[in-house]
């Protein structure tokens, strides 16, 4: 039955169906092939696009990285320079701070040492008061006996702190140092009189001083140049406001010049450190118009105080004090207090105090300003005697009568400049 059925003739409808199925199959295959080909092409294109995009992105990243690295390097370099500058500034400030602290520490130590020395000396003086009184009386007698030797010693005295050149070799060395640029100038002949064999002890070299005020500045000295030799006696005179007080304050190193330089025994005062200024002032004698004595101490203690300040040996103090009190005529007044003395006697004590450490220079600021004519004459005679013993004396004064009587060298100031420098009287108004 089956075989017969298979052998049955195929109808037209069946043939059409077969053909349609084959066509559909062929179309499906073709379509599949086209879809596959399109997908492949699209995938390839997509892959190429991705590769290109990746390459571009990589290039951009590389370029950006290089730019970033360059900027980073520049930033690091700038930061390094800033750090270096900051470190240098910090180092400079640290060095300045260390120097300042060191100076303050040295000054504090020195002041503390002086205070301890004073206290120890005072305590020792109290313990030996009775013995000191007897000893002092004996020394007065001995001082009178050895006055001539004392005079010779004072006349030949060379200050320890300001050692002066004593021969041509030392002077030549000083000149060589000046030529090599040590900050000093050769001013041996500035305003000096007479032979130039000896270097001046005081030199003003083109000194200008201007005070800065709240409203306007005030000029006190203008281009002042002069010199004073060792052993000179010089008056500095002029009307009020002429610059006399400024000049004495400059020599005392209370103030510094605005320009130019001041040399005392070859030392430039402007270059002295704070503790050196203190030592400098101890090696010059200063006499003020108002005496400036210690009211609660005796004549002896007022003079001895100057010795204790410089650390003089305690055993030598009575001897040195007795010498200068004998010189100023107050040997019998050593127990008196300032309020028990006349004005002239108080000024004599002040001179004794200025003289007790054997200074090379005595600076006197209006020493007769508070004295009557008789006492003024006696004080000037005393200063003249001290000058004859070898001490350089510089007196700032407005006392025309005293200047004319003494007939010494006179430096006349007017409106901050030197208008006259000669030996004789003071004739200007």
Structural description of this entry:
This protein is an alpha/beta fold. The chain folds into 2 domains: 101 residues; 295 residues, 3-Layer(aba) Sandwich (Rossmann fold), CATH 3.40.50.300. 55% of the residues lie in helices and 14% in strands. The strands form 2 sheets. Strands 6-7-8-3-9-10 form a 6-stranded mixed sheet, sandwiched between helices. The protein has a 4-stranded antiparallel sheet with strand order 2-1-4-5, covered by helices on one side. The longest helix has 116 residues. It is rod-shaped. The N terminus is likely disordered.
Entry keywords:
55% helix, 4-stranded antiparallel sheet, Rossmann fold, 2 domains, 429 residues, 6-stranded mixed sheet, 10 strands
Please outline what is shown here:
With 429 residues, this protein is α/β, with parallel strands linked by helices. It is built from twelve helices and ten strands.
What's the helix and strand layout?
Layout: H1 2-6, H2 12-127, H3 129-145, H4 147-155, H5 168-179, E1 202-211, E2 218-228, E3 233-237, H6 244-251, E4 259-264, E5 267-268, H7 274-282, E6 285-287, H8 299-309, H9 317-327, H10 343-355, E7 361-365, H11 373-388, E8 392-396, H12 400-406, E9 409-414, E10 417-423
Parallel strand pairs: 3-8, 3-9, 6-7, 7-8
Antiparallel strand pairs: 1-2, 1-4, 4-5, 9-10
Helix pairs in contact: 3-9, 8-9, 8-10, 9-10, 10-11
């Amino acid at each position: 039955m089956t075989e017969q059925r298979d052998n049955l003739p195929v109808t037209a409808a069946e043939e059409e169906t077969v053909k349609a199925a084959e066509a559909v199959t062929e179309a499906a295959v073709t379509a599949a092939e086209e879809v596959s080909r399109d997908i492949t092409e699209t995938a390839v294109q997509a892959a190429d696009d991705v590769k290109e995009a990746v390459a571009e992105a990589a290039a951009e990243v590389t370029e950006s990285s290089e730019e970033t690295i360059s900027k980073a390097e520049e930033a690091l370099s700038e930061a390094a320079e800033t750090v270096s500058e900051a470190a240098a500034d910090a180092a400079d400030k640290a060095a300045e701070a260390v120097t300042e602290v060191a100076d303050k520490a040295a000054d504090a130590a020195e002041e503390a040492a002086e205070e301890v020395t004073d206290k120890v000396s005072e305590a020792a003086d109290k313990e030996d008061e009775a013995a000191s009184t007897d000893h002092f009386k004996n020394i007065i007698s001995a001082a009178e006996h050895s006055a001539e030797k004392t005079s010779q010693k004072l006349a030949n005295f060379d200050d320890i702190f300001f050692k002066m050149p004593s021969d041509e070799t030392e002077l030549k060395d000083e000149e060589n140092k000046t030529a090599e640029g040590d900050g000093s100038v050769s001013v041996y002949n500035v305003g000096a009189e007479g032979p130039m064999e000896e270097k001046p002890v005081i030199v003003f070299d083109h000194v200008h001083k201007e005070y800065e005020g709240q409203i306007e500045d005030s000029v006190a000295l203008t281009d002042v140049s002069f010199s004073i030799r060792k052993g000179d006696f010089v008056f500095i005179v002029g009307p009020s406001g002429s610059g006399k007080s400024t000049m004495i304050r400059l020599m005392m190193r209370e103030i510094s010049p605005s320009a130019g330089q001041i040399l005392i025994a070859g030392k430039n005062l402007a270059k002295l450190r704070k503790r050196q200024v203190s030592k400098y002032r101890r090696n010059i004698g200063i006499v003020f118009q108002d005496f400036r004595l210690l009211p609660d101490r005796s004549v002896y203690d007022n003079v001895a105080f100057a010795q204790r300040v410089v650390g003089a040996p305690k055993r030598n103090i009575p001897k040195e004090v007795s010498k200068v009190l004998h010189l100023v005529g107050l040997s019998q007044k050593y127990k008196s207090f300032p309020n028990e003395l006349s004005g002239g006697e108080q000024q004599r004590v002040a001179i004794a105090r200025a003289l007790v450490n054997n200074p090379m220079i005595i600076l006197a600021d209006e020493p007769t300003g508070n004295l009557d004519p008789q006492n003024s004459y006696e004080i000037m005679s005393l200063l003249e005697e001290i000058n004859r013993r070898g001490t350089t004396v510089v007196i700032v004064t407005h006392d025309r009568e005293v200047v004319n009587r003494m007939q010494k060298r006179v430096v006349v100031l007017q409106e901050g400049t030197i208008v006259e420098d000669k030996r004789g009287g003071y004739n200007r108004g």
